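Quick one, tokens below. Sequence please?
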């Protein structure tokens, strides 16, 4: 609580909190984009058919 007593420290704390929120927001946004991309890739992969034409020992 001592950090919030003077104006300069309070501004630093507010700035730090805002930066953290920005980082978290960006991370969540990128995570959702990646999830969507992997979901679309999964749909493409499910269209692959496997046959029993592999080389056998």
């Amino acid at each position: 609580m001592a950090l919030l007593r003077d104006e300069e420290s309070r501004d630093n704390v507010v700035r730090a909190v805002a930066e953290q929120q920005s980082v978290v927001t960006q991370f969540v946004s990128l995570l959702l984009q990646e999830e969507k991309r992997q979901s679309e890739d999964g749909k493409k992969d499910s269209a692959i058919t496997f046959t029993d034409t592999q080389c056998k020992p």
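The chain has one helix and no strands. The chain has a mean pLDDT of 79.
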